Amino acid sequence: MKSWTRADIQAMQQRYRAMFINSLSGFKSANLVGTTDANGNENLCIVSSVFHIGADPALMGMITRPQSVRRDSVANIKATGYYTLNQVNTDIVVAAHQTSARYEADISEFTETGLTAHYEPGFVAPFVAESQLRIGLKLVETKLLEINQTELIIGEIMLVQSKESALEPDGSIDIEQLNSVAISGLDRYHSTQKITRLSYAKPHSQPEELLFDTPDQTSQE
Amino acid sequence: MKSWTRADIQAMQQRYRAMFINSLSGFKSANLVGTTDANGNENLCIVSSVFHIGADPALMGMITRPQSVRRDSVANIKATGYYTLNQVNTDIVVAAHQTSARYEADISEFTETGLTAHYEPGFVAPFVAESQLRIGLKLVETKLLEINQTELIIGEIMLVQSKESALEPDGSIDIEQLNSVAISGLDRYHSTQKITRLSYAKPHSQPEELLFDTPDQTSQE
């Protein structure tokens, strides 16, 4: 095993350090943030920093880039109060990655990347038609992280759309069936293969593999 | 596509809703949090809520459970100011999952699960010897999320240990080479297979696949 101290990290060249540190947290979710500005101009941007905050109320968080750079999505979320998260699947990896290019604010990343905006009645922010798991959120809170001028954006889930076949009897969605991808580092995209699903852990007993999870797996047993 | 509104989500039975909402954010990182209390009692706990906050300073965040439940790891982090994150790999999935059982505070999850505590000179918190990517952090800030009484814990990276063979020339670590796993929902564990690595996106050009990423891949080209 090789070790790096805090001083070693501080001595790294900026881009090298960004590559290194972004690798450390493990696999990340891949979502497209869909927004519009007050004039209806669409914006779409890939993010790897979306995470679960709570189930009741149903809350999701994401960390923005620092305030020192232009962030159309954040400005739009604050202006309209609404945004969508659209899980990236294997079919749209390249288009999703391309949304991270620095287009001008009045350019729609939908148009530029060929992804399709899908609107739901009464919801101002655009969903991505090609995504198999789409979430509509209402902004509930932003928290500035003073330490590096990034922001934590917290949204409450107002609408979920998913392929019904991926919904399990216990309420979980098997996102592998949706061909959802994982991100590592700044630019690696991964498909997944399920190793196991484990029962709720209790002291003095070993977790058991849960087998009711996919129809084809059940039939193998 | 099936749709669920906010009202549909609120009407779900609690456990069903937890399963459902926890599925939505996409793939998550799998890390073991290593801590000790002021008396040196070890604690180890799997978390799926670790995420990147920034590279300079090098910061990682994680979301805790609500303050209403016993949280030994959080108490230990606040008491000692230090903790470790240890990436979970395919060899230790079951032991890692088992750390989520509600052991008493004076029981070491290392002992109970067979994982091995590894100490570095001058660092109070235990690392997991079986992990191939270990991070030592210093607590820099906690932020209470009033909306659901969870906390955001922010740590600065003081030490990183990883298998050197997974380090790429550009500073990134290919965590797939470490057999790191991804989590989805509350209890699914996944291995990964790289789809592609894409160049920095720019307007008016398509991202290109980066090929220097693994020795065996380079030799295939």
UniProtKB/TrEMBL annotation, chains A, B:
Gene3D superfamilies: Electron Transport, Fmn-binding Protein, Chain A. Keywords: Flavoprotein, FMN. Its cofactor is FMN. It comes from the Bacteria. GO terms for molecular function: FMN binding; oxidoreductase activity, acting on the CH-NH group of donors, NAD or NADP as acceptor. SUPFAM superfamilies: FMN-binding split barrel. InterPro entries: Flavin_Rdtase-like_dom, Split_barrel_FMN-bd. Residues 199-221 are annotated as: Disordered. Pfam families: Flavin_Reduct. Residues 26-167 form the Flavin reductase like domain. The keyword Cell membrane does not apply. PANTHER family: FLAVIN REDUCTASE LIKE DOMAIN-CONTAINING PROTEIN, FLAVOPROTEIN OXYGENASE. Belongs to the flavoredoxin family. This is Flavin oxidoreductase. The lineage of its organism: Bacteria, Pseudomonadati, Pseudomonadota, Gammaproteobacteria, Alteromonadales.
